[in-house]
Model the fold of this input.
Amino acid sequence: MPKIVCQSRGEIDLLGHVIPVYQWVCEAIIWIGAGEILFGFLLLVTAWRWLIWLNIVALTGLLLFVLLFEPAMFTLPFNPLTLNVSLIALSLVALLEINKIKPLPPE
Done:
């Protein structure tokens, strides 16, 4: 929701490395925010393992993207490393819990 209501200068700068036009960057951030809301809703209401793995891959990719284009962000108090590693760990816990509830089919 914050991406839709109030765009962060850091997000604008990061996406500016991929999209050259400022107005397009601002519109893209709104669409990304809407996509994140939908993605989060799906994570809450489903038990799809592939969706959690997609979350882990996306968080890892975003972490590498920030490391490549804005490494100074890693010095901030709530930096991408602590946030993404925490969310990846939480996703792994979710995978373990899903496996308890819905075991994998026998091979």
Observations:
- The helical segments are 2-5, 9-16, 22-45, 49-69, 80-101.
